[in-house]
Input
Amino acid sequence: MARRLPPLNSLKVFEAAARHESFSAAAAELCVTHGAVSRHVAQLEDWIGHALFLRHGRRVALTAPGRAYLAEITAAFDRIALATSEQVQAARRQVIRVNAPTTFALRWLLPRLSEFQLAHPAVEVRLTTSNAPVGKIRDEVDIAIRGGDQQADGYVAREFLAEGRLPVCSPRLLETLPLRRPADLAGHTLLHSATYPGMWSEWLEASGNGGLVPRQSLQLEHFYLTLQAALDGLGVAMGPTALVALDVKEGRLVFPFRGPVLPPWRYYAYVSARRAGDEAIGSFLAWLEAAGAEAAAATGALA
Output
């Protein structure tokens, strides 16, 4: 059923005249003549069938029906304005599809992502997680974050973060089992991750304790489980400095040794070549690089 609506231009003029209770003020706001306002109001009154204003020479005042009508029209205009603003913002919003490894997303990207969102409210980041090589990610992505340099057709790589790796544990663990030198690890449980094999053997070799046998070893499927086990005091993990920086800063984890630090593990943002020139992509990459530099400086001070 078609809506029976009055002339919309006349409604707009009425709302301005009624809000000011002045045809002259409404004319100035709408950039029309006083006569045009008077004609639009008269047209609306004729359409409705009763007066909306009382006229006293060039002064006007709302009638009771006019005041009630103004309240409804104002509310309707407010709803139209809000709905229109939401549509305009949606049209301007740019979407960036980002894919990152689960542990990196949970422990580095998500805790910092609100900073980017606050600075770029018109950019919507849609985050998915995967450990697959860049060229084999099933989801369509604009930026893939991966550790290590990979060859990926159709993507441009930009390094944004480098982190060292050294042992990390809960401070509560050290209260019962102190760690004064690497050899003391023989009395501890070493936490391993199936997704980062070999880190402990590399570090022990670098520390001069390649033949060390720990009291126990515990292997977990994903690295974020390994770090959670360290937080819970189950043992000592090898901690990539960037991924544990917030926990160390807030005292949930500690580095029991100052070194040796294994060579840096580098993170790259692989950008889809077809969107490499987008302003939103450029903003996200610039933010990643700034956040990476800040994180590197902070973890360097903590380690």
The domain at 8-92 is CATH 1.10.10.10 (Arc Repressor Mutant, subunit A).
